[in-house]
Amino acid sequence: MSSTELPSVLATSVAPKVSSVRVAAGERLRTVGLPGITLTVRSRPPAREGLPPALYVHGLGGSSQNWSALMPLLDGLVDSEALDLPGFGDSPPPDDGDYSVTGHARAVIRYLDAAERGPVHLFGNSLGGAVSTRVAAVRPDLVRTLTLVSPALPELRVQRSAVPTALLALPGVAALFTSFTKGWTAEQRVKGVTALCYGDPGMVTPEGFRNAVEEMERRLALPYFWDVMARSARGIVNAYTLGGQHGLWRQAERVLAPTLLVYGGRDQLVSYRMAQRAARAFRDSRLLTLPDAGHVAMMEYPETMATAFRELLADTGKLTDTGATGARS
């Protein structure tokens, strides 16, 4: 558990069950009850007391497990926690059924306020990148630095490979897709997701593939799985259409925290060409482009990302805040 404890009324430690979510070596899971939502939080015991907190937010269809490769590489720098957004991973759906970007951002803010962990080093991937951008814009007091991996920010020309995901937002499409893919095995589904999200699917180890299949089987058994996917996809599409001060690009311009942007050259969901626009939008940004990476660079190239994050801290003078002499790699 992190060095910053939740009030006991909010935190309940849980022992992971064999049939439940996978927990990597050194990780712990706990459930956190907040008004209207219950969140599952994955954490690592901090290397020592006093490290600044970090929070990781996954993307559409993902979970806190997406950060398990990166978190141990930052053990000497930060006190890491990753959460399952409402309806994803091991977190049940929210009471209000709100899966908009704003709804997810509200869940992150509620957690940080209740845990009194802010300001944090905030990480976000894809949908989690859009969510984290909104959090950093509306609550700058909660964010020390911002690291965005292929953030789902509005694009005028969406890549063709991203269209099927966007179509999930349309009423009835999720049910149609469920019927169409009824005979697909978990292995087939994982192969499809891996081919879509990785720059090189061959990087996935046999053990990693087996773990992903087990997780896919678990999720498909949840009665709300497709509803959450469809509503969250709709939330992204709706966020793309918002203008004015609520538009994500406008909010990106309002972010004060030093920002690390990570884009993959083989990303089939968020276009590589958006990297330069993002670098211009975030006022205090650094850009890391990985030509061979896909949509989940923190899973594909965790060592490179850990190095880039350390450089972000050194560049902004925040490395001294950690009292760290080096990140474990």
Any chance you could write out the topology, listing elements then pairs?
Elements: E1 11-13, E2 28-34, E3 37-43, E4 53-57, E5 79-84, H1 101-115, E6 120-125, H2 127-138, E7 143-149, H3 163-167, H4 173-180, H5 186-197, H6 206-220, H7 225-241, H8 248-254, E8 259-264, H9 274-281, E9 285-290, H10 297-300, H11 302-316, H12 319-322
Parallel strand pairs: 4-5, 4-6, 6-7, 7-8, 8-9
Antiparallel strand pairs: 1-2, 2-3, 3-5
Helix pairs in contact: 1-2, 2-8, 4-7, 5-6
Q: How would you describe what is shown here?
A:
One of its GO terms (biological process) is acylglycerol catabolic process. This is Alpha/beta hydrolase. Residues 55-300 form the AB hydrolase-1 domain. GO terms for molecular function: monoacylglycerol lipase activity. Pfam families: Abhydrolase_1. The protein has 329 residues and is α/β, with parallel strands linked by helices. It has one domain: Rossmann fold (3-Layer(aba) Sandwich). The chain is 37% helix and 16% strand. It is built from twelve helices and nine strands. The protein has helices spanning 101-115, 127-138, 163-167, 173-180, 186-197, 206-220, 225-241, 248-254, 274-281, 297-300, 302-316, 319-322; strands at 11-13, 28-34, 37-43, 53-57, 79-84, 120-125, 143-149, 259-264, 285-290. It has a nine-stranded mixed β-sheet with strand order 1-2-3-5-4-6-7-8-9, sandwiched between helices. α2 (127-138) packs across α8, α4 crosses α7 (225-241) and α5 (186-197) packs across α6. The model is unreliable at 1-19, 161-177 and 324-329 (pLDDT under 50).
